[in-house]
């Protein structure tokens, strides 16, 4: 495959940045999207040009480190992580536009790399649990309704990639925050602090500069781990209880 790539280049947070166009040739349709960028970077390196900076780690769709807006869609045309997107989803001669996540909470560090430490601070705002959970053999001692266990497990699948923020017109981090609140608060160990946790994590989300949720649903549509939109309803119910109790 021969492709034209329009890629966002930015030297640093204060640089205005601009789109640059590159040609890449001989790309196998079995290559992953990141492998295609590796090929381009090797060509740039051979020409003495600065390679394109982008995030990646496990390249197995687990860590959430990679993330690009491809032709206007977070992670591209397939609902998966960027590292698991393959070039067979594109055609020979295509022009592909590649940009970083766009959000005040995710400032650009360089090119396609953004600072997502805001997610870490939202999780940290949730604090610790005060319950002694016991040793591993005691884990089955507290019965948990299967519905709660399944929902907590589903929410815990969130890898914090940030696609929900990139897809949201408001750049809201509500799906991410709700997933973390849901999987922490549904299990018995998380219940003592659950209402305080909801307030603390939401306040931190607002402090990081993410937008408000208006239930558009784009976040769930692009989530590579298919976190359902109803985790936001779970958070809102917990928030209502917290406000009722004056927390």
User: How many beta-strand runs?
Assistant: 7
The dominant shape is elongated
Helix content: 25-40%
Summarize the biggest pleated sheet: 5 strands, mixed
End-to-end separation in angstroms reads: 58 Å
Low-confidence stretches: none
Domain 4Fe-4S ferredoxin-type: 149-179
Family: Belongs to the succinate dehydrogenase/fumarate reductase iron-sulfur protein family.
Pfam families: Fer2_3, Fer4_8
Cofactor: [4Fe-4S] cluster; [3Fe-4S] cluster; [2Fe-2S] cluster
Topology:
Blueprint: E1 3-9, E2 18-24, H1 33-46, E3 69-70, E4 73-74, E5 95-99, E6 108-110, E7 113-114, H2 117-125, H3 146-156, H4 163-167, H5 174-185, H6 194-207, H7 218-222, H8 230-244
Parallel strand pairs: 1-5
Antiparallel strand pairs: 1-2, 3-4, 3-5, 6-7
Helix pairs in contact: 2-6, 3-5, 5-6, 5-8, 6-8
Tell me about this structure.
The chain is α+β, with helices and mostly antiparallel strands. It has helices at 33-46, 117-125, 146-156, 163-167, 174-185, 194-207, 218-222, 230-244; strands spanning 3-9, 18-24, 69-70, 73-74, 95-99, 108-110, 113-114. The chain contains 8 helices and 7 strands; from the N terminus they run E-E-H-E-E-E-E-E-H-H-H-H-H-H-H. It has a 5-stranded mixed sheet with strand order 2-1-5-3-4. It is elongated, with a radius of gyration of 20 Å. The protein starts with a strand and ends with a helix.
